[in-house]
Every structure is written in C-alpha cells, then in structure tokens.
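pipeline/complex-builder :: batch 7 item 3
reading input block
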Amino acid sequence: MLVEVVFITQILLVKGTLFESSNKTHISYSFYIENISHLYFKLDFNPKTLEDKQKAKTMIYDCLLKYSNLAEEETWEKYFPLKNLLTLSVDDPKNFRGAAHRQPTDEALLIAYENSSAGFLDGEMINGYWKITISVHSIVTDSCDYELQIWTEG
Amino acid sequence: MKWVTAELHTHTCASDGNFTFEELVQSAKAEDLDVIAITDHNTIHPATHIRKLEKKYNIDIIAGMEWTTFYGHLVILNLHSYIDWRTIGPSQFDVTDIKKSDAILGIAHPFRVGSPIATGCHWEYEVSDWNDIDYFEVWSNVNPNINAANKKAFKFWLDKLNTTKLTAVYGRDWHRPIPADKIVAKNYIGVIGDNMKSGVIDAIKAGRVVVSLAPLIEFTLFDNDHVVNIGEDYFTSNCIVNFKCVITQLNNIPSSLVIKSNLGPIHFANISQDSIIVSNISITSVKWIIAVIEQNTEMVAFTNPIFIRQKE
C-alpha cells in the first residue's frame, strides 16, 4: 500500500506588541520556500476592541467633531466598541497573492494551486522569497499583542 | 443610447463583506441590476471566476478593487491587475501609473467619518490634479439622500464643477443584505454601443450618469436639431436655451423638478407622475446645469451636468 507522506514545516511563529503610535505601519516577514504545495498562515491579535467606555466616548466624540461636526446629533454608543484592525497580505516572489481585509477568525488562511482562502489567489507555489505583510490600520487600545504563524505543506 | 442600471461599489467575503461573490451576484439579479462592479478591499478576483458568474447569471461584472489606504479609499474600475497601496504615504498620492491603463478612478465616500471609527474612510489626500479623478461617490451607503456626509459631498461636487469635469455616482458600498427599513439608490448609466462593460466605463468617464432612488431623468438641451446630453458641452452665444426632461419611474408623491446651476436654482416645475417638461432657461453667466427631483425638500434624483460654454 502506498502511503502519501506530507511534510508540515513551521516557518515562523512571531509575536509583537503594537501601540497607538504603531498606526499606519506595515510589518513584513519574508521567508524562503521551496517545493511546497500549500502555504498556511494565521494572524491573531488581542485585544480586539477598546472596552473602556470613558476612553471610547472621548475618542468617538473627537472623531465625530474632526470629521463631521455632528457630535450633538449622534449617539456615541452607535460606534462602540471601537475596533483594532490589522489586515494581512501576501506576495510571492513575482506577484501579489491576495489579502484578508477583515477581522481574523479561528481558521488558518491558505494559498495553494487551487482552493485558496477567500481574498487570496490560486496559482503556482513558486520557489523563492515570499512575503507576508501585516498592515496596521487601527490600534485604539493602549497596546495590542499580535501573533503570526506561518507553516507550509508539501 | 441605452440606460442601464449599475451598482459600482460592492464587497464579498474576499474582504469584509458577508456575501460570497455568487450571493452578491444573486442579490444584484434579484434587484434587476444590469451591471455590477466587484470592488473588494485591496484584492482582486480572477477573470475566470468573474466570467463564470457572468455566464451563469447573465449579468455584466466589471473587475475592480477598492484601494483601501490609511488616508482614503479609491474605487478603481476596469482593473485587471493588482495595484499596491502599501507604499503610498499621506502626501504621496500619485495615480500616474494607474492612469496609463484603461482603469477609471473614483473617490469613495469622501466625507464619511474617518479613523478610528472607520479607518481611512475619510478622503485625506491632496489631489493635485482633479483631471486624474474620473468620478466621485456623491451618494454613498444606505438612505443616501438624507445622509449628512453625502450632503457635504454634493456641495463639494457642485463647487468642483466650476473648474473641472467630475462625474457624480452612487456607491452603495454593499457588504451584506440591506435591512428592510433602509433604502438604496442606483445609477442609471447611458451606454452607447453593444459592449456593456466598456460602454459603462466610457459613460462614467463622459458623465452620462443619473443618480436616483427610483426616477430616471433624461435631461437634454436642444437647439433646432442639435441635442446636448448630460456630460456634454453646449457651445453657444445665446442667452436662452431650450431644455427637455423626460421623467419616468416616478412614484405618485408630489415632486418638484429643479434645474440647478452655478448661479443656484434657475427653474422649477411641479410634477406628480411621469412627465415630459419642455421649457427654456436663461444661461447668462451659467457654467453648468443639472436636473434634480425633490420630494418634501429632499433630493430623490439628480443628473450629471451639461456644461455651458459661452462663445465670445
């Protein structure tokens, strides 16, 4: 009986801490892969939301005043809780391979020849340096810890 | 010219929408839309997938992306390869490379509240040359005619018309099914020729778009045999011009047709059903005119402008 052997290799497990001052930055991890069939990656970060109501209220009013002058008419609770937002994007050695502009879930994301996760592009798993980028759209909490895992199959 | 209906700003689970791409297309078909643009945040859909859905549902789908930067969101239509946003700083807005392709660019929800409530949603880039921008989402989101940010956008757009051609459109920013207590608008787009998708792109560039909750306003100027459509220039040395508005799909609520210009409103007519209004207006010092339908002092539809060019 033939048994297919699948090699799973953990490439990176990296952790970091972001602050409000980290807003609008990009953090990229570049890694070399060869002869793989599947690239998996998973981003998680905590906290996801700002639960401090007093701080949130001040930030929401400041934001409404800055952008709309409508603060009196709007209820700040409509925008509570404010969210941290980090998004992921991937580049293979030659091309852009997609992005996940959304809040993370428990599921790992996949790029492969076919059946890649939503937002990512199927195609050849080219040998060379791939790059995963975390884009820091919004940090509203005092700090936010992220963890990115990358592993390959094949 | 044929009027088609289009939604130009949509999302799926490829970014932060709730729909799968197929569910979005099914929803568009349920509303009888002729065309949609798929504009997920910072990612694109393979052409093969788009073609498959077009065939299965007999709908035209324009490939696009919402270029979702930290400092503003730009909808790019007729886009066939990814365009990076990750290297653009707040004072580095430059679309020279995008403009070399067949893509067209529209500023999304320009006056929506920005970060930290909605990150990057408010347009903060300095645009050095407005000729680079093809269109502007004057109406965005649900209940667009009473939305305060849209009222600001409308005022800004009217002011811009004094110096540039900038097409107004509606962008629903469609992420999920619309709640029953909310209303949406649509774009009526005047397509010339048989190719629906390139026809829509050309029409947006040319300003042949009517933004509306329901009624279609076919607004033209006429001068003997010469007919001037929205988006076009009317060259004249006359002080008075004839106009015609053919209004269809109006509900039976008492409405006003208002012709607005850079000088303010210049003509009123009361209507309560589908109508054809023919009259004349003075165009001394007038640079542009649009037709608007109002109900209970709120706009329910408006056209893009006809530009008046006075001959010496």
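note: Chain A has a mean pLDDT of 94.
queue -> next item
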